[in-house]
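Q: What residues go here?
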């Protein structure tokens, strides 16, 4: 059943209590293959939410369900307090007040920048003003009469964003928005895009597989693994307090050890370490130690001996690979000034808390590591 929302003037901002976007129990399959199962998260007004995960994990499907390009099998989607998808209800894309920025930008090659931006704005007395404001917002007013093939990749992206913002949407959805840009330009542009969205006071949900990208610009991180939303929260919290070993390992290199938890600490091969996650098991556990928390030559605290097996210089830091007495490898990341010579025996400690998980989950992960 298709239901249309009441028409609103395109320049009016809609303000409702609660999050700008709410997704609950969202599920979708294609020809019997699960694309996403029971995804639940929300996006606060004016915030940026990143859907982060490997390819094929359900990120883009979730975005397309929010945009109205696909019909969910289960779950609800609410935008600005209005349900746009739920059992028995489906509001078409053009009535959702959603702006979309596609991975390839999808600009019309035969239209000027101005006409591309105007394409999604309904005809009326406010149309020219909306286009002018959108172009000013993204800094593309001077290029208004140019054609898309006369623009750089970064400029094309800003035009695509202006087109999405011109109708004054409640939320902007961006699918891998920086993947077509080279590394140096990507770092510059993503900060610019974040500021544009902030200035527009617009809620945004974007898909990415780049962890640095998600950490640097997102207010909320939704980690999607194996077609399931594993964890949602502030980027720092998700990194420091992962909900599962899968999340911990996906968000960066992790040193994995067997251990035993008791009283907020875990005993493992690196010593007795404080545990950061509240849901740590009691008794046998698997321990995740971040490389940046491993320190050589610690001045205080417990330490163990290890042999330096290799050193990788990275300019602003260096990665050092170690081998413990048991033969287990350990990786650490540290400042370039800290001495580490291949073949030498050093003292190794941990200067922060660690994450601990139940052993069945850990056993599966350890098998993967061994493989």
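A:
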């Amino acid at each position: 059943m298709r239901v249309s929302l009441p028409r609103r003037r395109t320049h009016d901002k809609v303000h409702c209590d609660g999050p700008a976007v709410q997704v609950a129990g969202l599920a979708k399959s294609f020809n019997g293959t699960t694309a996403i199962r029971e995804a639940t998260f929300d996006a606060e007004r004016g915030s940026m939410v990143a859907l982060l995960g490997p390819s094929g994990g359900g990120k883009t499907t979730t975005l397309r369900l929010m945009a109205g390009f696909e019909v969910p099998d289960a779950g609800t989607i609410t935008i600005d307090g209005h349900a746009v998808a739920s059992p028995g209800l489906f509001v078409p894309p053009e009535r959702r007040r959603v702006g979309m920025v596609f991975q390839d930008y999808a600009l019309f090659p035969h239209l000027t920048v101005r006409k591309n931006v105007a394409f999604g704005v309904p005809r009326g007395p406010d149309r020219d003003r909306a286009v002018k404001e959108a172009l000013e917002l993204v800094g593309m007013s001077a290029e208004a009469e140019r054609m898309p093939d006369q623009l750089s990749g970064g400029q094309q992206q800003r035009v695509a964003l202006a087109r999405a913002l011109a109708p004054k949407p409640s939320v902007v959805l961006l699918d891998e928005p920086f993947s077509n840009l080279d590394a140096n330009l990507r770092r510059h542009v993503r900060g610019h895009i974040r500021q544009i969205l902030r200035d527009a006071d617009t809620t945004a949900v974007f898909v990415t597989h780049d962890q640095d990208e998600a950490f640097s610009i997102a207010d909320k991180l939704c980690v999607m693994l194996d077609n399931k939303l594993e964890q949602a929260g502030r980027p720092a919290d998700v990194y420091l307090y992962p909900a599962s070993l899968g999340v911990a390992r996906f968000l960066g290199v992790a040193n994995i050890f067997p251990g035993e938890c008791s009283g907020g600490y875990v005993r493992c091969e690196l010593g007795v370490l404080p545990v950061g996650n509240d849901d740590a098991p009691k008794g046998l556990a698997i321990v995740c130690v971040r490389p940046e928390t491993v320190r050589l030559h610690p001045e205080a605290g417990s330490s163990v001996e290890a042999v330096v097996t290799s050193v990788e210089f990275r300019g602003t830091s260096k990665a050092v690979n170690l081998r413990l007495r048991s033969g287990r490898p350990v990786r650490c990341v540290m400042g370039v000034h800290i001495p580490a010579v291949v073949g030498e025996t050093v003292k190794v400690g941990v200067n922060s808390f660690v994450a601990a998980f139940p052993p069945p989950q850990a056993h599966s992960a350890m098998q993967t590591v061994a493989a």
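A: Context that may help when evaluating the design: The first strand starts at residue 21 and ends at 30. The first helix runs from residue 59 to 67.
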